[in-house]
Amino acid sequence: MSLETVDGFIIDLDGTVYRGAQAIPGAKESIALLRSQGKRMVFLSNRGNISRAMCHQKLLSMGIDVPAEEILLTSTVTARYLQQHHPGSQAWVLGPDGLRDELVLAGIGLAEKPENAEWLVITLHEELTYAELNQAFRAVRNGARIIATNDDKSFPGDDGECIDVGGMIAAIVATAGQEVEVVIGKPSALMAEAALQVLGLPPQQCLVIGDSLGSDIQLGRRAGIRTALVLSGSATRLDAETAAEGPDMVWESLAELQHLLKGKEGIK
Amino acid sequence: MSLETVDGFIIDLDGTVYRGAQAIPGAKESIALLRSQGKRMVFLSNRGNISRAMCHQKLLSMGIDVPAEEILLTSTVTARYLQQHHPGSQAWVLGPDGLRDELVLAGIGLAEKPENAEWLVITLHEELTYAELNQAFRAVRNGARIIATNDDKSFPGDDGECIDVGGMIAAIVATAGQEVEVVIGKPSALMAEAALQVLGLPPQQCLVIGDSLGSDIQLGRRAGIRTALVLSGSATRLDAETAAEGPDMVWESLAELQHLLKGKEGIK
Fold first, then answer.
1. Nearest residue to A82 via CA among A184, A164, A225
2. Do B166 and A177 touch (CB under 8 A)?
3. What is the mean pLDDT of residues A63-69?
4. Which of A73, A88, A157, B251 is at a distance of 20 to 30 A from A4, taking alpha carbons?
5. Is B139 left (phi over 0), alpha (psi -120 to 50) or beta?
6. Is residue A81 part of a domain?
7. CB contact at 8 A, B157 and B195
8. pLDDT digits (tens, 9 = 90+) for B113-157
9. Same structural domain, B97 and B162
10. What is the CATH number of the domain that holds A143?
């Protein structure tokens, strides 16, 4: 497929633009080229434990300047979901301040006591304490409904594989005896809709670029958006070739975008 | 039923002998009377986060002197189970030092790294950290089998209902994708067998006294031991009367034992 017909790029962050604290080689230049050509962009992450301001700073530290309104984290989309569907709700957070910041920005009230919360919002919490688990448990026992930024089971950390939101969710669901009502993260339609809304474009004019078959490529396929898998993160070429629902294209990394865009220009 | 035919008393601790840090009125005197009459006793708790030495000290602080060998906690029985069925195993603990002490006393080795463990032992951990959850997760991902001291979902704490071992188990099982292989706690046959072994008596000469229909009374019924429910803990008289599998007797508290034993003497 040609990139000429693509006006909007939905770009995954972790494993596509950066890995840990390091930018993936060529990612910065590809993003700059897209911007110079007037392409629209939105950057997606299933991370719900940071705010857009924190993510903006992280990208800036790698020399990549992306305005906060082009960043869509699950914290952002969770906050918007509550604001749109349950305005005026009081929320209790099992997670760090990054998520609280996004909720407050979207106008969601934070309950003073777990017992007062209408929603328990769960995300990855790397500073988790037993007291916080109990507060979340008591929110649900007192009637709070459960929404999770995502339900990934684990992620690669600096010192090995780490428990992700799935672990925090399970601890609450198993003890409070209530299921999760909404999961926001990729590959959900909610994340695709939010991305298309930022771009202001229909699905057929867009392309999803990401490193995960299960979240990025699935998100694109379900929403009718073309997909490119990059091999700079969790998936291999073999994964892509043997996947029941594979991507439209496979690239070594986001750097390949430069050749494709320049190639297109060269043909002109 | 008469207590004349009872030679061994299997007595639950939490809700029967004490509640929090307070002895239940009359419990101390009933235990003293049993001892003066030469009755054999064993004290049971589903707690797996403390050692017998810690429990002995707790009882002593209430004026109740029970030798450590008459105390059976799930930490004790878990340690014995591993020692008997999987001698020489290396264990990793998700829990506090009380459980580690019991494992070491039973001759179980503690793995130096989670990756080396053959068993992950899970119990209530009130000082839980995210780093410890990840270590437990990595033990299982590297092949450790899971054993839990108990799988209670919650318990009444000083400041409200608290998440019990069930929450810790769920966080690991949901993310590591492996089920728990053994649960030691009441009403399991393992706890009943361990209690009868301490008493050195057959089931028909014993009586289980406890405050929980689901754990204490069930333990007795399954093992063919008579049962007395005390109303000083979690169950009410209505619970006892409407239970599909109720107790043989219902007492207000352990204090009632004194009247029954004295009554028996009076008839003689």
1. A184
2. no
3. 95
4. A73
5. alpha
6. no
7. no
8. 999 999 999 999 999 999 999 999 999 999 999 999 999 999 878
9. yes
10. 3.40.50.1000
